[in-house]
Amino acid sequence: MTTTAVGGKVIGLKEAAARVPDGAHLTIGGFAHSLTPLALVRELIRQGKGKFELTSMGDCWAADMLSGAGRLTRARLSNYMFEGFGRCPNFSRAVETGEVVVDDYSHFAVTSRWIAGALGLPSMPVRTMLGTDLVRKKPLDRGDIVEAPCPLTGEPLLFVRASRPDFALLHASRADAEGNIQLFGVTSTIEEQARAAKRVIVTVEEIVPGSVIREQPELTLIPAFLVEAVVEAPFGAHPGGMFRYYDFDREHVGHYVRAGKAAETFRRYLDEYVLGLPDHDAYLAKIGMRKLMALRADPYWGY
Amino acid sequence: MDHTRQEIMAVAAARELRDNEVAFIGTGLPMIAAYLAKFTHAPGLTLIFESGVIGAQPRGLAIGVGDFKLVSHCQKATGLYYALSLLQGGRVDVGFLGAAEIDQYGNINSTVIGDYQRPQVRLPGSGGANDIASAAKRVIIIAAHQRRKFSPRLHYLTTPGFLDGGDARQKAGLPGGGPSRVITDLAVLGFEPTSKRMRLESLHPGVTLDEVKEQTGFELLIPPHLPVTEPPTREQVRLLRERIDPAGEYIAPPQPAGSLRG
How confident is the model over A9-30, as a mean pLDDT? Predict the structure, then answer.
């Protein structure tokens, strides 16, 4: 399945991954078993990219796969968990062995760092994390949060510094060649990540004509001028799901989690599903048409 | 009505939710209790999930807060920031959390066991839990009652209960009211109003005080009279076993006679 839509900002997956340098500060889309641009993450791994820094809300899949492949150096995060399957095995092991340095936040606080970045503000006040170790223990970000009274009322607040990652790597439902991005269902922190990051690359399930986008502009989450490049990657979130397209692949998730319990077994998983395959098309062929069709969403329920 | 300890835990937790409240729900047992409340005495309950689901009406048990079952046919599907800003803005009556490790002031750890930078066990992290516990008008915690969970000193303070006790929450600037109840498979617990120390409120049928003390790693306040938790109704048990968790994913089905824990 070659890219069927060309022109405008549409590029291939290989080119998209090639644009991301080693050591980049990334923010990746994703929440639980959905919305993660895993086709792009697999391509980054294939191209040998690494030493990444992540600023994360909940892109557990990206963090775990990158950790398992030894491509993650540091991560500020709010929550990495494989819902229904327990902890993220590779990420947990990487932290426990000292391979990855972490700094913890709450969902609202880390998102507020992107909001500040998006708004061009140096910092943002929040009323969360106060009094806890999320404020006290900051191996990466000691200078990036401070408790201070509101200058107008004197109430205690927490100020978090603006975050502007080098790249936002996101996955969405559909886009046109111009780069307008639409997303069905819940939108996680995709919008905030797109507005905070310096460069935005979005993989989508399908590229559609501009008229489709413009018939329902209220669905446009990110307008084209904020987007550097768009990639057509059907089932690009697999084994995660995309609302209205396909549910997550429970069987594959179970297989991945079992493989991730030890470095050796995860190396075999990577060889089989990432490094040993040339591209996303080969990955989908390996997952197989029968499985992909079984995952497809019911149009009424959306999953 | 014959019931298991997990079933009474879900029922006691569901009782804490009132009709027409706005509730922010976490993954796992909180979801079971919230569904049970919505299907029984609180049909007007608005269920909000940090994933951006406002007003969930799921047709089956969700695997977690990101499950598409919650998104499908909800009132409003939006972003995480919108959902959490409702919390910050004081719009959420009750937050419902699970706990990996909890201390006598209702503070919770979901980050690490051991040293923060080189932990023995790296846990998932706060997620929305800290946000919920910081800002909800009240918080209900639901957890299995085990000594290793009810710990005198947390490895890491992820989610605020009453911090050091007393008026520590207000001093820290936290807007919400803090935990009001801890529901376990052995008992219902609350917090003494001044010291904010965890206090036993009722024992589930068949549970002894000794058993609770044995499973609690710190000293609990014990009131002079200890009522027995009201058992579940037949209808509540039926709903749990047949409609809410028929596969027994969170509420284990009743064990055959002779097993240790029902």
Answer: 98
